[in-house]
Design brief:
Strand content: 5-15%
Largest sheet: 9 strands, mixed
Structural class: alpha/beta
Order of helices and strands: HHHHEHEHEHEHEHEHEHHHHEHEHH
Distance between the termini: 74 Å
Oligomer: single chain
Number of helices: 17
Strand order of the largest sheet: 1-2-3-5-4-6-7-8-9
Radius of gyration: 22 Å
Length: 415
């Protein structure tokens, strides 16, 4: 009897998940593009320019050149290097939704926000802005945007200053995950809710969706990940300059991939919450319901899942897991049983890979799918998992923090 109920629940959940992933009709199938131009600076500095140039126009030779580029990126930590920006500034403006779909309820929400703004009923918000060290042909994308949620001073009292960077999912609007940030503020943790490359205010004017972050342009997808990782690290630099001492990151879906790689390259990120994660970037794009339009473009050129996995190996967490495991971190992994975007087998592979790498982690499972995570009541359960983990992890960090060295002793220590 229980088995029959379970099967009925699974069918219901898969149907609901499928309805949510197929309701947006503004996904565009674009042709395969290797996108070497998006990585030109690294291609030249790594000595691959001649090989890329010689491969031009030969599909298989171009694929081989891109595979060589992947291997070089994985071997070369400099790919995610950067110079700290010099133009950090806080900007106060009225928040906007920047919707990525044309569903009636979304358009109604957008219209209501605009009406409230026009009538003076919408409170202004603060945003951290700076120029990304990774440049693209889109100036609007290169001006980084992170909504700033500083914790009230009285909630920060008596402990190290703590902050978390929040990275929402692919195609998130500008209000996604803001509720989590206000929750963290109640714990005395400040939050920077970072707009990913090509998202919300950073989205090029020709796009309805954040298509350029993940697409059939192989190089541009790698470049977007590079920019996201560097932008995260730049946000940490700014937070440190404001006196913050302990840092975490929370990423959902695509945001979890960016968060993982940033944490692998930046030991400052001690608290890590990954909300839907995979070890392979290509596997998710190939098998996920919400990326079928990308798979169609790649299949049209004869690519396979295995070949795509290799082409995006440099931005797959598995390639950086040893670097991630090298520093002690507090880690949460949340996955969903009925996920049709990050298939359950990939979520379980994350848990196996973390265990094999010696990473201590907490695993939580949602009885829903990828998109249904955002629906009641699963959004509350997910929020509970994320919120309680972040609260406990930062509390532990504060408890074990080294007391600050008095000024006189600091001078002696440096002599």
């Amino acid at each position: 009897h229980r088995g029959m109920l379970g099967k009925r629940y699974a069918r219901w959940m898969y149907a609901w998940e499928t309805a949510l992933t197929t309701r947006d009709e503004n996904r565009v199938v674009r042709p395969l593009d290797w996108g070497f131009d998006w990585l030109q600076d690294f291609i030249e500095s790594s000595g691959l320019a001649a090989r890329v140039s010689a491969a031009h126009g030969d599909l298989r030779a171009e694929e081989d050149a891109f595979l060589a580029l992947n291997e070089t990126i994985i071997r070369t930590p400099a790919f995610f290097d950067y110079e700290t920006p010099t133009d950090y500034h806080l900007e106060t403006r009225l928040p906007e939704l920047f919707p990525t779909n044309v569903r009636p309820e979304t358009l109604a929400h957008d219209a209501k926000l605009k009406e409230d703004a026009a009538n003076g009923k919408l409170a202004p918000a603060e945003f951290l802005r700076f120029t990304s060290p990774v440049r693209t042909p889109y100036p609007e994308n290169d001006l980084v945007n992170a909504r700033w949620f500083p914790a009230p001073p009285e909630r920060q009292a008596g402990k190290p200053k703590q902050a978390i960077i929040v990275m929402p999912q692919w195609n998130a609007d500008a209000f996604s995950h803001n509720a989590l940030c206000t929750l963290f503020n109640r714990f005395g943790i400040s939050a920077l809710r970072l707009s990913k490359p090509f998202h919300d205010i950073r989205r090029p004017v020709e796009l309805e969706r954040s298509d350029y972050a993940v697409s059939s342009n192989i190089g541009r997808t790698v470049a977007a990940c590079r920019q996201a990782v560097v932008d995260i690290r730049c946000c940490l630099d700014w937070l440190q300059a404001q006196g913050y001492e302990q840092f975490g990151i929370l990423g959902t879906s695509l945001g979890s991939c960016y968060a993982f790689i940033a944490s692998a390259f930046d030991a400052r990120l001690q608290v890590n919450a990954f909300n839907h994660a995979s070890m392979s970037f290509g596997d998710v794009v190939w098998t996920g319901q919400s990326t079928r339009h990308i798979r169609t473009a790649l299949e049209n050129e004869g690519l396979t899942q295995q070949r795509l996995d290799a082409l995006w190996r440099a931005i797959s967490p598995i390639s950086h897991i040893d670097r991630f495991a090298a520093n002690p971190k507090k880690v949460l992994v949340v996955h969903a049983t009925y996920d049709l975007t990050f298939l359950r087998e990939f979520s379980q592979e994350v848990l196996r890979s973390f265990a094999a790498a010696g990473i201590h982690f907490t695993s939580k499972v949602l009885p829903c799918g990828h998109y249904t995570t955002g629906e009641f009541p699963f959004n509350y359960l997910d929020g509970w998992y994320l919120g309680s983990f972040v609260y406990s992890a930062f509390k532990d960090l504060a408890r074990n923090a080294q007391p600050p060295v008095p000024a006189a002793d600091r001078e002696l220590a440096t002599q």
